[in-house]
Write a structure and sequence with these properties.
618 residues; alpha+beta; 8-stranded antiparallel sheet; 26 strands
C-alpha cells in the first residue's frame, strides 16, 4: 500500500510544482492511519474500538491445525452448537443368526442389508468474525502525587482473545500508533497466554488519543491467515467535559476480542512471517532476522534544563536545550538491542558550561559509536578538547566498549556547551528582536549504542515517561564534585520526595514534544505575563490532566506592543518530516518510482505535443 501511495504522490507533486495546487500534495497521505479521524475520535469518546478482519495470505494447509469434524446437534448448518462425531465402520454382511432346536431344519437363508455409514460433514468454509468490547480504567499519571512533568502518556494495554472453544493462546498482538510519524509506529508487542490475554506497556506522545491493535491468526476452515485490526483509546475527556476545557485523563484500555473461525497459526507461516519470530512481516522491521523484530521511534522532542540547582533560579528553562530523536531496535520479546539517537544543541541561556549525558543501568557491556557535525552538516572535531564534568568518564568523544559501571556513570552525548553552540546562546533578553539570522544551529551528535546482550530497560529505572535517563553535568562543584541535574522521576530522597523537583513543585528539567520554543532570558515560564505560556501553570497544577498541549499555546495574551517572550526555534529549525518520509519511501521503492517517472514523462510529453499541435493548427 505504501508503494502505491508513493507512486500516486509523484504525479501530484508534479502538478503541485506546475499548477501551485498545494492541497493536492497532501491528499494521498490523509489516510495514512488505520481508520478515519472520525472513527478514532468516536473510539476515544466512547471507549469502544471497531475491529475488522483482513485476509493476509492463503497458506499451505499442512501449516494449519485441522478442525474437528462436526455435525450440528439440531440438524442445522447455521453455526449453532456442534458436537464431534466419530465415523463408524460400515459392516459388509451380517452373519446368519445361530439356529436353535425349535427352528426349522431347513430355513431359508436370511441376508441383512448393510447399515449405511454415518455421514461425516466437512465444515463449510466460513469467514472469520470478530466482536469487541473495550473497557477503560483511569490511570494515575502523577506518580503517587509527585507529578513528573511528563508529557508522554504511559499506560498498559491489555488484549484478551477468545473463540468458540474458549481462550486463544499464543496469538501475536501488536500495538501501533500513526500520529507521530504518519505511518504505523510499533509501540509494543506481545503474545497471548493460556488465558488468551496479554498486557503490553506503551508510552506515546500526548497527541495520541487512540492506538491501533493487531492480532494475527488463521481461519481454520479456509486455511487463510487473517489479521484482526481495531483501535482502543488511551485518553478520554476528563469528567465528561470537552478536551479543551477540562482536559483529558489517561486510561488503560482492556480489549476483549470475541471471534469465530479464528485460532493461532500452527507453526510458522513464512508467507507472513519470513523469519518465524512471531512478528508478522507487515510489522517486522527485520523480516529475515529472528533476533530482531521492531524499531520503536520516538519522534522529535526537546529536553530543556534550568541550571541554577538547587535553586529554581529564573525558571526560564533555556539554560541548556537540545532537540533529539531516538530509535530502539527491539527483539520479539521487547528487549532492546540497539539505541540510536540524534541530539542537536539549540540553546545555552546561562553563564555555566554543561555536558549532556545519558545514564544506562544495565547488566551488559555496550559498544558506543559517536560522531558529530556542525550546524551546516560538516564533520566537527571540537569534542576532543572539551573538558569533562563527570569524573572517570570513559569513551568521551571517541566511544568504544563500555562496561555496565561506565554506562551507568554516563555516556557523553554533547560536550561542553561553550563549544557546541559556538559561543552563542539563542537566548536573547525579552523584547529583543531575534530573527533567523540571529539563530545558531549547534552541534549535532549521532550516537549508536549496541548492547552485547539485549536488555530490558524496564527491569531497572532507565525510562520515565518513555524517555531515557538524560542528565546535565556542569562546571559548578558542591563539596568538590561537579553538579548534575536529572529529570523528575529518577531519584528520591530519604523522605520519598523527588530530588529534582523544588519545594514549590518546579523541575530543573523537562521534555517537550516537538521543537520547544523556549522562553527568552529571565522569562519565568510559570508567569504567563512574562513567558507567554498561558497554560503551563494549569497543566502543572492539574498534574498533567489539563492542557496537555500547553507548549503549543503561547503569545495569546492581548496587549498593545507586547514584546516577545519566547524564541521561536520552530521557525528557525526547519522540520523536513514530510520530505524525509517521501525520500525514504522513494529510496525503498526505487524501481517502481523509476518506472512511474518514465510513464509520467511519456504522458506529459504526449500532452505537450498534442497541445503544440493544436496551437499550430490554430
Amino acid at each position: 500500500m505504501k508503494r502505491w501511495l508513493v507512486l500516486i504522490t509523484i504525479p501530484l507533486l508534479l502538478l503541485d510544482c506546475s499548477n501551485k495546487k498545494k492541497g493536492l500534495l497532501l491528499l494521498p497521505f490523509l489516510g495514512l492511519g488505520d481508520g478515519s479521524t472520525a472513527t478514532q475520535a468516536e473510539a476515544a469518546n466512547t471507549g469502544n474500538g471497531t475491529f475488522t478482519v483482513v485476509g493476509l495470505e492463503t497458506t499451505d494447509p499442512g501449516q494449519i491445525t485441522a478442525p474437528s469434524e462436526t455435525t450440528p446437534t439440531d440438524g442445522s448448518t447455521n453455526g449453532g452448537e456442534q458436537t464431534t462425531t466419530t465415523p463408524t465402520p460400515a459392516p459388509e454382511v451380517a452373519s446368519p443368526a445361530p439356529t436353535t432346536p425349535s427352528e426349522p431344519t431347513n430355513p431359508e437363508p436370511v441376508v441383512t442389508t448393510p447399515t449405511p455409514a454415518p455421514v461425516v460433514t466437512t465444515p463449510t468454509p466460513a469467514p472469520t468474525t470478530v466482536n469487541n468490547e473495550t473497557t477503560t480504567v483511569v490511570v494515575d499519571q502523577t506518580n503517587g502525587g509527585n507529578f513528573n512533568f511528563e508529557t508522554n502518556i504511559t499506560v498498559p494495554v491489555t488484549v484478551t482473545v477468545g473463540n468458540e472453544s474458549g481462550p486463544v493462546a499464543n496469538a501475536p498482538v501488536t500495538v501501533t500508533e500513526t500520529t507521530t510519524t504518519g505511518q504505523p509506529n510499533v509501540v509494543g508487542v506481545g503474545t497471548t497466554d493460556s488465558n488468551g490475554s496479554v498486557t503490553i506497556p506503551i508510552s506515546v506522545p500526548p497527541t495520541v488519543t487512540t492506538v491501533e491493535i493487531s492480532v494475527i491468526g488463521v481461519n481454520p476452515t479456509t486455511g487463510e491467515v487473517v489479521e484482526l485490526t481495531g483501535t482502543a483509546p488511551v485518553q478520554q475527556p476528563a469528567n465528561g467535559g470537552s478536551g479543551s476545557s477540562s482536559g483529558t485523563v489517561v486510561v488503560a484500555p482492556v480489549i476483549n476480542v470475541d471471534t469465530t473461525n479464528f485460532q493461532p497459526v500452527n507453526g510458522c507461516v513464512q508467507a507472513v512471517d519470513t523469519d518465524c519470530d512471531g512478528i508478522a512481516n507487515i510489522y517486522d522491521e527485520f523480516p529475515e532476522d529472528p533476533s530482531l523484530a521492531t524499531t520503536a521511534r520516538s519522534g522529535r522532542y526537546t529536553i530543556a534544563f534550568e541550571d541554577m540547582y538547587p535553586s529554581a533560579g529564573d525558571a526560564d528553562l533555556n539554560d541548556h536545550s537540545t532537540i533529539f530523536t531516538t530509535e530502539m531496535d527491539k527483539t520479539p520479546v521487547n528487549k532492546v538491542k540497539v539505541i540510536r539517537g540524534t541530539y542537536t544543541h539549540v540553546a545555552k541561556g546561562a553563564g555555566y558550561n554543561h555536558e549532556l549525558r545519558l545514564s544506562l543501568n544495565v547488566s551488559t557491556n555496550a559498544k558506543v559509536q559517536v560522531s558529530y557535525v556542525d550546524g551546516s552538516g560538516k564533520p566537527w572535531s571540537g569534542c576532543a578538547s572539551a573538558p569533562k564534568y563527570t569524573a572517570n568518564a570513559t569513551g568521551d568523544c571517541t566511544g568504544g566498549t563500555l562496561t555496565p559501571a561506565q554506562l551507568k556513570r554516563g555516556i557523553l552525548l554533547l560536550p561542553s556547551s561553550d563549544k557546541t553552540l559556538f559561543g552563542s546562546k539563542n537566548a536573547p533578553a525579552a523584547g529583543t528582536t531575534f530573527t533567523i539570522n540571529n539563530f545558531v544551529r549547534g552541534v549535532t551528535a549521532n550516537v549508536t549504542i549496541t548492547f552485547e546482550e539485549p536488555v530490558d530497560l524496564n527491569a531497572t529505572k532507565n525510562l520515565v515517561g518513555g524517555h531515557l535517563n538524560y542528565f546535565l553535568a556542569f562546571n559548578q562543584k558542591t563539596d568538590g564534585v561537579f553538579r548534575q541535574i536529572y529529570r523528575p522521576g529518577f531519584f528520591t530522597d530519604s523522605k520519598g520526595k523527588d530530588s529534582f523537583i523544588d519545594k514549590n513543585g518546579f523541575p530543573w528539567a523537562i521534555i517537550v514534544p516537538g521543537i520547544f520554543n523556549h522562553p527568552t532570558e529571565g522569562a519565568d515560564i510559570r508567569k504567563p505575563s512574562t513567558s507567554g505560556y498561558i497554560f503551563f501553570n494549569s497543566w502543572m497544577n492539574s498534574n498533567g490532566v489539563a492542557h496537555k498541549d500547553w507548549y503549543l499555546n503561547v503569545d495569546q495574551i492581548p496587549a498593545p506592543n507586547r514584546p516577545s517572550y519566547v524564541v521561536r526555534v520552530s521557525d528557525f529549525y526547519v522540520d523536513n518530516g514530510f520530505s524525509a518520509y517521501l525520500i525514504k519511501a522513494v529510496q525503498k521503492n526505487a524501481l517502481e518510482v523509476s518506472a512511474s517517472l518514465i510513464v509520467i514523462g511519456a504522458a506529459l510529453g504526449f500532452l505537450m505535443k498534442k497541445r503544440l499541435g493544436k496551437q499550430q493548427a490554430a
